[in-house]
Every structure is written in C-alpha cells, then in structure tokens.
Amino acid sequence: MAGKKVAITLDEALVEALASVAEEEGVPLPRLVAEAAEPGLRLRAGRAVIREWQAEHGAFTPEELAAARADMAAADAEYLSGPGVSAA
Fold first, then answer.
1. pLDDT in tens, 15-62
2. Structural domain harbouring 21
3. Which residues contact 18 (CB under 8 A, 6 or more apart)?
4. What are φ and ψ of residue 81, in 5° steps?
5. 8 A C-beta contact, residue 22 and residue 29
6. Distance between CA 16 and CA 57 in Å, rounded?
7. Is 9 in a helix, a strand, or coil?
8. Is 60 within 8 Å of 54 (Cβ atoms)?
9. What pLDDT band is residue 1 in, cutting at 50, 70 and 90?
10. What angle separates helix 29-57 from helix 12-25, to the nearest 10 degrees?
11. Could you give the count of Cα atoms lying within 13 Å of 4 in the half-sphere of its Cβ?
12. Is residue 4 included in any domain, yes or no?
C-alpha cells in the first residue's frame, strides 16, 4: 500500500496514549492511527448507504430494525464463539 505523509494536530494526551500502545504492540504509530481510523470510515460509508436506501424506499419500520438487530446479535455471537476467540 502506498502511503502519503500528512500533518495533523491531535491532543497531546491522545498522542502519548497512541505512542504508548504503538510501542507496546511493536507497530509504527502511523499504522496504529490508520487502523483506528478505518472503522470510522467504514461506519460513515455504511450510514451513507442506509440514508440513500431510505431516501428511495422510506424509513425502516420498527419490525425491520428489530430483525436487523437480532441478525447482528446472532452474527456477533457466532463470531465471538469462533475458534481463536478468547473471552476477555
């Protein structure tokens, strides 16, 4: 993956905490920051897809939301009980 150098300003305490975690895990600080940012970008993209779908089809009903929550809970339970997953 090609990288691009950028300059950002973060709270000093956050930078210290990130640097500490990066050192403990033996990863470069930029990689740790990128890994932390990716889930937020995926969440935003998912929300955009949902907004587009609802704009075309209407808002989700309470029943649809309940079914989606049940499906997500089942998927989480299956994933968390899989091999190599420890209950921390």
1. 999 999 999 999 999 999 999 999 999 999 999 999 999 999 999 999
2. 12-80
3. 10, 29, 32, 33, 36
4. -100, 5
5. yes
6. 46
7. coil
8. yes
9. low
10. 110
11. 2
12. no
Does residue 2 sit within a domain? no
Q: What is the DSSP string of 25-81?
A: HT--HHHHHHHHHHHHHHHHHHHHHHHHHHHHH-PPPHHHHHHHHHHHHHHHHHHHT
Distance CA 25, CA 46 (A): 29
Domain count, the chain: 1
Grade residue 3 by pLDDT with cuts at 50, 70 and 90: confident
Contacts by residues 27-33 (CB-CB < 8 Å, ≥ 24 positions apart): 30/3
Phi/psi region, residue 87 (left: phi>0; alpha: psi -120 to 50; beta: rest), is beta
Count how many residues are written for the chain: 88
Q: Do the beta carbons of residue 68 and residue 58 sit within 8 Å?
A: no
Q: Is residue 27 part of a domain?
A: yes
